[in-house]
Amino acid sequence: MYGEFLRVNQYIKNLLIFAPIFFSFSFFEYDKVINGFIAFVLFSIASSSIYILNDIYDISEDQLHPEKKNRPIASRKIKKTSGFIISIFLMLIVLLFSFLFSLKVFYVIATYIMVNILYSVRLKHIPILDIFVIALGFVLRVLVGGYATEIRTSMWLIVMSFLVALFFAIAKRRDDIVLGESGLQTRKNISGYNLEFINAGLVMMGGVIIVSYILYTISENIVTRFGTENIYITSFFVIAGILRYMQITFVDGKSGNPTNIFFHDRFLQSMIFLWLLSFIIIVKLV
C-alpha cells in the first residue's frame, strides 16, 4: 500500500536524471554516478511528496476513475490529513538535503515543488498549460542530473526531453477524454479538449519528435562531438517506438498510464534497449 501511496513505480521517470551521464559516456566516473544516484533519490522523494499532494486534491475525481479509485487516499485507506502531513514532511526533508548537497540542485527541486503545488491547486485545470507543466517536470529532471554531476546539459537533450514528455502527456489526456465520453468525468480540464484535438496533437508531436531526433543525429555539432556520422541509424528504433506508442494509444486505447506501458510492453522495452545499445556501439565501438 505504501509503495502505491508514495508512487514508487513512477520513479522510473527519474531515470532521466542519468541522461547527462549517458550522453557524456561518463559511466565509469564514479563520483558522477554517485552524485547522479543521490540526485535520483532526492528527486524521487520530491516527486512522492507531489504525488501525495496531487492525490489529496484529486480525491473526488479519482474516486470516479475505474483504476485510480483504488489509490490509498481515494479509497480512504490513508486519511487526507495524514497524507498532507507526510507530503509536507517529505518536502522539507528533500529541500534540506538538496540544499546541503548542491545549491543548484536545491533551486531546481524547489522550482519543481513550487510549480507542481500550483499545478495541483490550479494549473492542472487550465487546458494546454497543464500538459506543458507536466513536460516541464521532465526538463527539470534533466537539469537536476546535469547540475548534480556537473555535466553540461545540451540544448538537444532539453528540447527532446520536453517534446517526448509532451507527447506522453497528450496521450494520457486522451485516456481521460475517452473515459469522459463514456460517461466518467474524471477530470475537469478535459472540457478544454476533445478527441479530434488530442489526436491531431499526438500525430503532430510524434512527427516533431522524429524530425527533431533525426536533425539531432545529423547535426554538425553532434557528429563532431561523437566523431561519427552513423548515429542516424538509431532513428529507426525511435520511429518504431513512437509508432508503437501511437498504436497502443489509438488501437488499444490504453494510454492512461505511461509507466505501466513501459513496464509491460515488450516491444517498447525492446526498442528502448536496442536504441541504447546501438547508440553505445555506434559511438564507442564503430
Describe this structure in words.
The structure is a single chain. With 286 residues, the chain is mostly helical. The protein has two domains: 1-153, UbiA prenyltransferase (Tetracycline Repressor, domain 2, Orthogonal Bundle); 154-286. The protein has helices spanning 2-5, 19-23, 30-57, 59-62, 80-101, 103-121, 129-149, 155-181, 195-218, 220-226, 235-252, 258-264, 266-285. The radius of gyration is 19 Å and the shape is globular. The protein starts with a helix and ends with a helix.
Core attributes:
mainly alpha; 13 helices; 2 domains; Tetracycline Repressor, domain 2; single chain; 286 residues
Task: Give the arrangement of secondary structure elements.
Blueprint: H1 2-5, H2 19-23, H3 30-57, H4 59-62, H5 80-101, H6 103-121, H7 129-149, H8 155-181, H9 195-218, H10 220-226, H11 235-252, H12 258-264, H13 266-285
Helix pairs in contact: 3-5, 3-6, 3-7, 5-6, 6-7, 7-8, 8-9, 9-11, 11-13
CATH superfamily of the largest domain: UbiA prenyltransferase
Arithmetic mean pLDDT: 91
Topology as H/E string? HHHHHHHHHHHHH
Work out the helix count.
Answer: 13
Beta-strand fraction estimate: under 5%
User: Could you name the CATH topology of the largest domain?
Assistant: Tetracycline Repressor, domain 2
The largest β sheet comes out as: none
From the alpha-carbon coordinates, what is the Rg to the nearest angstrom?
A: 19 Å
The assigned structural class equals mainly alpha
Determine and state the CATH class of the largest domain: Mainly Alpha
- Domains (count): 2
Q: Which spans have pLDDT < 50 for at least 5 consecutive residues?
A: none
The end-to-end span amounts to: 47 Å
Q: Tell me what the CATH architecture of the largest domain is.
A: Orthogonal Bundle
List how many beta strands DSSP finds.
0
Shape: globular
Helix content: over 70%
